[in-house]
């Protein structure tokens, strides 16, 4: 045997050993043990290398198993103590596997790296082990919809990192644990944001020590238990609260007066208790949307100022002892849609309410007098069949085992029920609100690259526990069914409640129906193992036979790779005839970029996102650059990458970030941009820098970014639709010129006009054109809508979705409420002067940009001209020159290259690379 062959065999042997050792042996043993206990494990759980062969649902870091996501995969069995051998495990989600049963092993407390534990909708029973309090890194704990019994472990109070505690819908009993001299309790969870403890059998009083002023709690959900005693006044000390649910208990006494201090609570549920006294004063709760106090024995007259709360939508005080004259007042909220006062003792009404308000007084003396025919004396049941839009595919028929999606495709949807812990009666009847929910869900799926084509919600009902339920069908994209990875990803995201959904639509959980037909399903049988063993035993023979062909094969392989690689004819020489017209964009070698970033050191990182990381580098010429380095999971095909480079190299405008060059070597894809140092428009509006954002500065930045976008639409060759315009994609250079950035989602306008219809709607929640989402027809007017939202940000300095409301809706409401159509004092950025010159024209322009119909929106060229007119008017009024370029440079400026806000995650999740399918 020749020396070359010996070297080749040695290399192959080493590679085989390396592959065999890709997964830590202890982790292999643990997963193998679980596999032997569980039924219906994924078919590709074969072999002894879960990390190297990418077992479905398993993710690894440095040969250690760190993530297990097998939600909704029909697992059956129990969770044995073998799980504790996975000592590096950080994320465990086995939700919606109803066949998983038994008790939680107490040894689970040994998984000291675990930060997320989700077991929603399984069949676990018995006590929650006290050892769970040893999981010091635990951030997210969701055990709802099982059959856990016994008391809540006091040890949970040790979990100082815990943000989300959800034990809803179990059989837990006992009292709510609080700390004492020898034990811990829930009162020690001062960093927790969510207490979801409803639908259990907890008894005793709500301890006053449970709440304190140093807590960060936003959801206090204790409904549907057996709690007694008074509502503790300490509840009024938790200034961060947004939702309070104490309904369906046996609480008594009066409502504490200091609940009026909870100024950002939007939903207050106290129904079905034994409360006494009068309706509390709630006038300090300016963000209150829903007041639910039915069946509570409250008495006396309703204070008129209750209805003047500016955001109030629903008041339900039925079946109490309220009496006297109902005085709604004349300054009641224009958001008000329902006042339900049936079955009380109200005798008179001072005046009628507006026609948009459903007033219900049935069962009161005012409706018992002879001849009472007023509309408020009858109760009309909502017609839920008309609350959800049809899919408009009536003429389309699918085979008996498939369903028509809203996009008129036949496929097998992932079906289940969304259970909303907080969702008002009035919103159940609000079709536009439900459309917004669908849009937000879609945005969350698309931003995480989950294979979802569309969503259909139907049959909204309010269950016996006052939870709102929507039957939910989620349709796959690209094929007619989901694989296991897709199902697990969808289910895990829903039960993890992404931040933007949680804040806009309240907390919810998802219980699925068993999925019928996983894509690529095959049975893991002994036959497969035997075949694998036979193949393995033949490897050595095949190696010996194939050695003679190795050199020939390598030559052929190199030749084919060159033919497939569209860069093969390119050489790093700008004078080569084979290089397309890149107009200044350089081809950088990997070594050049490695050197200018200090070997891609952590210190050079200035941003990150789903695509990878961005590094700050200094070229040999001294030029500062931002290097966008794609991670392996987000690499494009070579042809797509080449096309993007050719596209970006044609874009040259002072208000568009310039492409300096690119790198395509060693399996790397990197784009090199000019470095833009002064952060994003969004960050500067938020006050995170010390750049002075006065009115003239904002007008100047609006003009800059409008000119950049108009260039893309009207002058670029070929014209481009950006598709992700937002304040965080507008960067400020060292002279405070605004530059449009990030073309990762862009499309050529020519492709669109030729009939291109995107099959995956993409963009950022809050900025996305609703017509584009509903029709999937992309036009340049979709960018105009997004830019209109940016203009409203410039006026208000608020995020597009603020406290559950869209900025467009907020501005419309402010204009409708004011005598002066442009008196926006309530939402105007307080750093601006009271009435900036040109504000009215600026707001009119912004609202034209966000018209529902794309045909009614202006072009970007028209937007540029209108902003120029506003600036000219403002300058003439103030007799000032164009705004100067001076600015303060002290203070921290957040980097402009982060892109985590596109329907992103909270910090607890962003660190985990869980989507590997």
Automatic annotation (TrEMBL):
SMART domains: S_TKc. Its main location: membrane. The keyword Transmembrane helix applies. It is found in: Membrane. Its EC number is 2.7.11.1. The keyword Lipoprotein does not apply. Residues 1-21 form the signal peptide. ATP binds at residue 628. It holds the Pfam family LRR_14. This is non-specific serine/threonine protein kinase.
């Amino acid at each position: 045997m020749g020396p070359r062959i010996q070297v080749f065999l040695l290399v192959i042997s080493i590679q085989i050993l390396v592959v065999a050792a890709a997964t830590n042996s202890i982790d292999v043993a643990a997963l193998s043990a679980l596999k032997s206990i569980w039924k219906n494990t994924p078919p590709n759980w074969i072999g002894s290398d879960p990390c190297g062969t990418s077992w479905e649902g398993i993710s690894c870091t440095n040969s250690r198993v760190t993530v297990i996501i097998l939600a909704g995969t029909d697992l059956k069995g129990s969770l044995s103590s073998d799980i504790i051998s996975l000592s590096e495990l950080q994320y465990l989600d086995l939700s919606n596997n109803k066949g998983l049963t038994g008790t939680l092993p107490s040894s689970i407390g040994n998984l000291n790296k675990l930060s997320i534990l989700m077991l929603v909708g399984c069949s676990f029973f018995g006590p929650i082990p006290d050892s769970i309090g040893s999981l010091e890194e635990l951030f997210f704990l969701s055990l709802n919809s099982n059959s856990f019994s016994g008391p809540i472990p006091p040890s949970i109070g040790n979990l100082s990192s815990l943000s989300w505690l959800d034990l809803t819908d179990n059989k837990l009993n006992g009292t709510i644990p609080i700390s004492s001299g020898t034990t811990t309790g829930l009162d020690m969870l001062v960093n927790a944001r969510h207490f979801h403890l409803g639908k259990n059998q907890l008894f005793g009083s709500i301890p006053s020590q449970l709440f304190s002023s140093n807590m960060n709690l936003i959801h206090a959900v204790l409904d549907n238990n057996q709690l007694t005693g008074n509502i503790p006044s300490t509840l009024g000390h938790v200034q961060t609260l947004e939702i309070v649910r104490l309904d369906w208990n046996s609480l008594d006494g009066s409502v504490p007066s200091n609940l009026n201090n909870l100024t950002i609570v939007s939903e207050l549920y106290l129904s079905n208790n034994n409360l006494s006294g009068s309706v509390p004063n709630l006038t300090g709760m300016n963000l209150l949307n829903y007041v639910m106090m039915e069946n509570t024995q409250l008495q006396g007259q309703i204070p008129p100022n209750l209805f003047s709360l500016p955001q109030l939508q629903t008041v339900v005080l039925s079946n109490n002892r309220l009496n006297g004259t109902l005085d709604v007042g004349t300054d009641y909220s224009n958001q008000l849609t329902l006042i339900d006062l049936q079955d009380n003792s109200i005798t008179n009404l001072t005046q009628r309410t507006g026609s948009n308000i459903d007033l219900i007084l049935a069962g009161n003396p005012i409706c018992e007098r002879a001849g009472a025919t007023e509309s408020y004396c009858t109760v009309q049941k909502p017609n839920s069949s008309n609350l959800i839009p049809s899919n408009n595919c009536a003429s389309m028929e699918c085979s008996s085992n498939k369903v028509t999606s809203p996009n008129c495709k036949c496929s097998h949807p992932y079906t289940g029920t969304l259970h909303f812990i907080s969702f008002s009666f009035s919103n159940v009847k609000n079709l536009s609100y439900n459309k917004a929910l669908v849009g937000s869900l879609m945005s969350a799926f698309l931003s995480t690259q989950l294979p979802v084509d569309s969503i259909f919600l139907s049959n909204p009902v309010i269950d016996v526990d006052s939870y709102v339920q929507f039957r939910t069908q989620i349709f796959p994209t690209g094929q007619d069914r989901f694989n296991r990875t897709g199902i697990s990803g969808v289910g895990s995201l829903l039960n993890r409640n992404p931040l933007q959904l949680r804040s806009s639509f309240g907390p919810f959980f998802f219980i699925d129906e068993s999925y019928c037909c996983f894509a690529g399903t095959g049975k893991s049988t002994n036959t497969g193992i035997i075949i694998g063993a036979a193949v393995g035993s033949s490897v050595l023979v095949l190696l010996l036979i194939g050695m003679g062909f190795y050199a020939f094969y390598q030559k052929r392989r190199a030749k084919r790779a060159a033919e497939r690689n569209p860069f093969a004819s390119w050489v790093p020489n700008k004078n080569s005839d084979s290089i397309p017209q890149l107009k200044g964009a350089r081809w950088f070698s990997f070594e050049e970029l490695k050197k200018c970033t200090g070997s891609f050191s952590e210190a050079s990182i200035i941003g990150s996102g789903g695509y990878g990381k961005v590094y700050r580098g200094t070229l040999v010429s001294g030029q500062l650059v931002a290097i966008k380095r794609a991670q392996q999971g987000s690499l494009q095909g070579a042809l797509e990458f080449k096309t993007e480079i050719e596209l970006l190299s044609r874009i040259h405008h002072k208000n568009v970030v310039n492409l300096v060059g690119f790198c395509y070597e060693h399996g790397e894809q990197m784009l090199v941009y000019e470095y833009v140092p002064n952060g994003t428009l969004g960050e500067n509006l938020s006050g995170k820098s010390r750049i002075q954002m006065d009115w003239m500065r904002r007008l100047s930045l609006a003009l800059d970014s409008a000119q950049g976008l108009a260039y893309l639409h009207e002058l670029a060759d070929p014209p481009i639709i950006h598709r992700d315009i937002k304040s965080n994609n507008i960067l400020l250079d060292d002279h405070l010129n605004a530059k449009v950035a990030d073309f990762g989602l862009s499309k050529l306008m020519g492709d669109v006009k030729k009939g291109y219809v995107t099959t995956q709607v993409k963009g950022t929640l809050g900025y996305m054109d609703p017509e584009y989402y509903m029709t999937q027809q992309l036009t340049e007017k979709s960018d105009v809508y997004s830019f209109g939202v940016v203009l409203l940000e410039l006026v208000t300095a608020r995020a597009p979705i603020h406290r559950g409301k869209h900025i467009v809706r907020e501005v419309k409401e402010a204009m409708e409420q004011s005598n002066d159509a442009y008196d926006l004092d309530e939402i105007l950025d307080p750093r601006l002067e009271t009435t900036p010159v040109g504000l009215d024209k600026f707001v009119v322009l912004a609202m034209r940009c966000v018209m529902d119909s794309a045909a009614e929106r202006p072009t970007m060229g028209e937007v540029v001209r209108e902003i120029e007119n506003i600036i000219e008017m403002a300058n003439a009024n103030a007799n000032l020159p164009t705004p100067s370029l001076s600015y303060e440079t002290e203070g921290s400026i957040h980097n402009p290259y982060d892109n985590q806000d596109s329907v992103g995650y909270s910090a607890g999740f962003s660190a985990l690379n869980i989507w590997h399918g």
